[in-house]
Amino acid sequence: MLIAVGVGSVSVPPDETWRIVLAQLTGGTGTDPTHTQIIWDFRVPRVLLAALAGTGLAVAGVVLQAVVANPIADPYVLGVSSGAAFGAVLALSFLPLTVGWIGVSSAAFLGAVLSAALAFLLGRRAGRLAPTRLVLSGVAIGYLFLAATSYLQLRATPGELRSVMFWMLGSVSGASWQQLPVAATVILTTTAVLVLLARRLNALLMGDESATALGVDVHRLRAVLLVLAALLTGTVIAVAGGIGFVGLVVPHLVRLSCGGDHRRLLPLAAVTGAGYLVAVDLLSRTVDRPNELPIGIFTAFFGAPFFLWLLRRNTSLDAA
Question: What percent of the chain is predicted at pLDDT more than 70?
Answer without folding.
Answer: 90
